[in-house]
Amino acid sequence: MDLEHKFCRFDQDAVLVEGMKIEGYASLFGKCDQGGDVVSKGAYARSLKRLMSEGRAVKMLWQHDPAQPIGIWDEVREDERGLFVKGRLLDSVEKGREAAALIEAGAIDGLSIGYRTLKSTKNDRGHRLLAELELWEVSLVTFPMLPSARVSSKGEEPPQDMDGLRELAEALEGMRRNLTGV
């Protein structure tokens, strides 16, 4: 199975705090995304437990690029709403400093997860119900697929009309897939 990237919906903004700290929801349970996927409560539980038992962590990447880690997720957990993440952008990494500046300026405002599907089913609407996922990373991204999958500076409201950006994000994702074969 291939690694998948999902630009997930969450209702509250992830917030940049104290310059380099970020927190928010990277995924919400029971919400259908534009790709027709719905993450079930508990889908990340085994993966998170396995990572912890092996002394490994979910990676914080820039734009899903494994060559560009930009920080550390200090806390990744499931709660009643979804997958909550809390971490630090690294100021000792050039791209981490850039990411903090871009978030603060409002130029970057997306979160996206990278995972592998272990168990899923289809419902009568044709949606894929994701029951178990192997979570690899949560990335900061330029164009989230879903309008509310955002990072913002504390106190700033992101723009609500994102249809044009969503279409652009889908086109860019299609081009990336064509170029990389992933």
TrEMBL record:
Keywords: Hydrolase, Protease, Viral release from host cell. It holds the Pfam family Peptidase_S78. Residues 19-153 form the Prohead serine protease domain. SUPFAM superfamilies: Herpes virus serine proteinase, assemblin. InterPro entries: Peptidase_S78_dom, Prohead_protease. One of its GO terms (biological process) is proteolysis. One of its GO terms (molecular function) is peptidase activity. The keyword Protease applies. This is Prohead serine protease domain-containing protein. It comes from Sagittula marina.
